[in-house]
Design goal:
By secondary structure, the protein is of the alpha+beta class. It has 2 domains: 7-47; 53-107, no CATH class. 45% of the residues lie in helices and 15% in strands. It is built from 3 helices and 4 strands; from the N terminus they run αβββαβα. It is rod-shaped and about 90 Å long.
């Protein structure tokens, strides 16, 4: 029989302590990763629904609307707020510019 363990009790006990220490470190890391995955899943499940339409707001007093976008448009600026379909249509017909990338006027069937 092949036995590569030390023959004396003192060294075997040291090895046992060393391996127990490593198992504790591994278990701690596993628990951290499981917690992180659970938090990510929870965040994905509870993510707010993407709006159908957004309006980009200007700078200054009253922050006037300057451009209408589809909710998933990549060209929307940082100053924005979600709007319902009827308000998006109203803004477009009142002269607010339509995004040239996502074309909300075409999606809402508004003719120039």
């Amino acid at each position: 029989m092949f036995d590569d363990l030390p023959p004396d009790l003192a060294r075997l006990l040291r090895l046992r302590v060393w391996h127990a220490m490593w198992l504790q470190r591994i278990d701690t890391k596993i628990a951290e990763l499981q917690k992180r995955e659970a938090e990510q899943e929870h965040g994905q499940k509870n993510r707010p629904q993407e709006p159908d339409w957004t309006v980009e707001l200007g700078i200054g007093n009253g922050r006037p609307p300057i451009e209408v976008h589809a909710g998933n448009c990549y060209a929307t600026g940082k100053r924005r707020r979600p709007v319902p379909r009827d308000e998006a249509r109203r803004l477009l017909t009142s002269g607010v510019r339509a995004c040239t990338h996502c074309r909300p006027d075409t999606q809402l069937r508004i003719l120039d």
